[in-house]
Amino acid sequence: MANKKTDFNFIKKTVEDVTKIRRTRLYIPGNNPAMIRNSPLFGADQIIFDLEDGVAVNQKDAARILVRNALKELDFGDTEVTVRINSVDTEFFEKDINEIIPAKPYAIVFPKAEDEKQLLDVCNQMGVVEEENNIPIGSIKVTPIIESAWGILRAENIAIACDRLVGISPGGEDLTADLGAIRTLEGEELLYIRSKLVLAARAAGIQVFDTVYTNIRDTEGLYNQTKRIVRMGFDGKACIHPCQIEPIHRAFMPSEREIERAERIVEAYTMAQKEGVGVICVDNRMIDVPVVKQSERILKRAEAAKKR
Amino acid sequence: MKIVRTAQAGTLESQDVLITVQKGKPNTGLVIELDSPSAVQYGSKIQSEIETIVMEFKIEDVHIKAIDKGALGFTIKARTEVALKRACE
């Protein structure tokens, strides 16, 4: 993986960076002090302070400075904090990077990701700002949102563009428009895209997050859609209102049976490791490393469900 | 920096503050006019947060009106900084 300017002492992503529980990623409008202040209380696994679509064009400067100050002064506890900046083709992009990076969010949510070169340029630019502010290079991670047909075709290259990348996601609304498709409850128009992003993310060893469910009153529809994307392999889902957190967490909650089986698999694997046994069987089925990883994911989700 | 126009930042929504910056009369220094429901408890803290930002801008004669709706320090400082930037640009 290339990090042109910063190969020397680049802080590489850790296992925690790509396995952390991130079932919910809640967008908080970047120019709303009350929402920003209360954001850790909503119970989302991750907060995204939004400087892009959630902010009027004539308030971009105000949102940028407000979010920067919030990052520097507020305590968000164990809620992971990220910032969605404006896309690289806008006049706001550089100002966003220059103000937000020094305030050290966990990650930058990068919209309208188009290809690997663009991503690498952005990552290098982040490195320059980190260096200027004495922040270890590579500390701040990136999660791109792919919002065009072209970007989807490049998804597997985007996913490995830079070692800062810890997850990718589709931008449902813009993508549907770009495809000339119609958004449906069943999501058939995004089926291929979602499948492709899961594949690209897993091949790159990073996480994958689903797009928002825009009808905030339809919590049952949200629950059903989340159940579907959990089955597809997604690690989390973006949300636009605190009332969407509970249905998403419920959909990510594994069943008693899944938990019980996962516990047996992990236990059998740990024992086998200790005893130097190569092949293990649970319920008369051979268990391989990917199944163990999946079981660990299930147990982490069950653990997270106890807290939130 | 020099103030070239009157400018505002913030809103009158809960937990926000509306800051209006305008050029002060010569040799009047920094004048802060504060309207806050918690002026008795937090008035001096709010004033000092505004002052800190004005000092960074090195502006001499400036009149600032702050209508506070229960804003925390991070908001007061952000709104003051943005209003000053808008006034000076």
How is this fold's topology laid out?
The complex is a heterodimer of chains A (308) and B (89).
Chain A: H1 15-19, E1 24-29, H2 33-38, E2 46-50, H3 60-73, E3 80-84, H4 93-100, E4 107-110, H5 116-132, E5 141-146, H6 149-153, H7 155-158, E6 167-170, H8 172-179, H9 191-204, E7 207-210, H10 219-232, E8 236-239, H11 245-252, H12 256-275, E9 280-282, E10 285-287, H13 289-307
Parallel strand pairs in A: 1-2, 1-8, 2-3, 3-4, 4-5, 5-6, 6-7, 7-8
Antiparallel strand pairs in A: 9-10
Chain B: E1 7-9, E2 17-23, E3 30-35, H1 39-57, E4 62-68, H2 73-88
Parallel strand pairs in B: 3-4
Antiparallel strand pairs in B: 1-2, 2-4
Helix pairs in contact in B: 1-2
Average predicted local confidence, pLDDT of chain A: 93
N-to-C order of helices and strands of chain A:
HEHEHEHEHEHHEHHEHEHHEEH
What is the tally of helical segments of chain B? 2
Please provide the ordered H/E string of secondary-structure elements of chain B. EEEHEH
Number of distinct beta strands of chain B: 4
Strand order of the largest sheet of chain B: 1-2-4-3
Termini distance of chain B?
Answer: 9 Å
| Shape summary of chain A | globular
Q: Percentage of helical residues of chain A?
A: 40-55%
* CATH topology grouping of chain B: Ribosomal Protein S5, domain 2
CATH architecture name of the largest domain in chain A:
Alpha-Beta Barrel
Task: State the helicity of chain B in percent bands.
Answer: 25-40%
Query: Low-confidence parts of chain B, pLDDT < 50 over ≥5 residues?
Result: none
Number of strands of chain A: 10
Spatially, the strands of the biggest sheet of chain A line up as 1-2-3-4-5-6-7-8
Question: At the fourth CATH level, what is the homologous superfamily of the largest domain in chain A?
Answer: Phosphoenolpyruvate-binding domains
| Spatial extent as radius of gyration of chain A | 20 Å
- In total, how many domains does the architecture of chain B comprise? 1
**Whole-number mean pLDDT of chain B:** 95
Share of β-strand residues of chain A: 5-15%
